[in-house]
Amino acid sequence: MESLEHIKEKIPENLYSVLEKEGIDQLRPSQTKSLKAGLLEGKNLLVCTPTASGKTLVAELAMMNRVLRGEGKAVYIVPLKALGTEKHKDFKRKYGNLAKVGISVGDFDASDPHIHRLDVIVCTSEKLDSLIRHHATWIKDISVVVVDEIHLLNDPGRGPTLEILITMLRQIIKNAQIIGLSATIGNEKELASWLGAELVHDTWRPVSLHKGVYYDGKIEFE
């Protein structure tokens, strides 16, 4: 693993300070690969790595790097309101002193005019779709879009809305960076191609997994 100091000169000083306070001193493999793939240069990325491997920090680096440089707003798309609430709480705790962090997961028919004052916006795909259809003027100010659980494009319920949303965003804000995050997806190369993104694939996880069979009070591992 590489040291956090490796990127000290590449990100805003106040962002680096927050990461230090969070106790981050090493970059995990997926984070290092993402940086090498152009994360801080605005490249679109599809990050496919196991749970707890550091995908969220990849998103945070992309979002806060652009926000703190005054290059535009960041939107973090989640599939569920509960996940949105969790991410909003975490982002606000870490970065609330550096940027205006907010959440919009309410009624789909509301235009939420207050959002234009925010720098980092957490929302569901359905909510962002509604905001676009309500012609929210701040959409054009988005510089980074993070799509968490992007494998839900294959979901028969949420998939179509998410696919249309990403397509619309790519038309409206052509220069925005798109970061897709997924712990598991079967067609990662095809999806990366569709997004015009670099594929970041890694199998490292903080805790090793072992397959086995449990029977009669005993586990036999492969």
What does this structure look like?
- It is a single chain.
- The protein has 222 residues and is an alpha/beta fold.
- The protein has a single domain, classed as P-loop containing nucleotide triphosphate hydrolases (Rossmann fold), CATH 3.40.50.
- It is 35% helix and 21% strand.
- It has 7 helices and 11 strands.
- It has helices spanning 13-21, 29-36, 55-68, 81-95, 125-133, 159-172, 188-195, and strands spanning 2-3, 26-27, 45-48, 73-78, 101-104, 120-124, 142-147, 177-182, 198-201, 212-215, 218-221.
- A 7-stranded parallel beta sheet has the order 5-6-4-7-8-3-9, sandwiched between helices. Strands 1-2 form a two-stranded antiparallel ribbon. The protein has a two-stranded antiparallel sheet with strand order 10-11.
- Strand 7 (142-147), helix 6 and strand 8 (177-182) form a beta-alpha-beta unit.
- The protein is globular, with a radius of gyration of 18 Å.
Work out the strand percent: 15-25%
Low-pLDDT residue spans:
none
Strand order of the largest sheet: 5-6-4-7-8-3-9
Output the CATH class name: Alpha Beta
Structure, briefly:
By secondary structure, the protein is α/β, with parallel strands linked by helices. It has helices spanning 13-21, 29-36, 55-68, 81-95, 125-133, 159-172, 188-195; strands at 2-3, 26-27, 45-48, 73-78, 101-104, 120-124, 142-147, 177-182, 198-201, 212-215, 218-221.
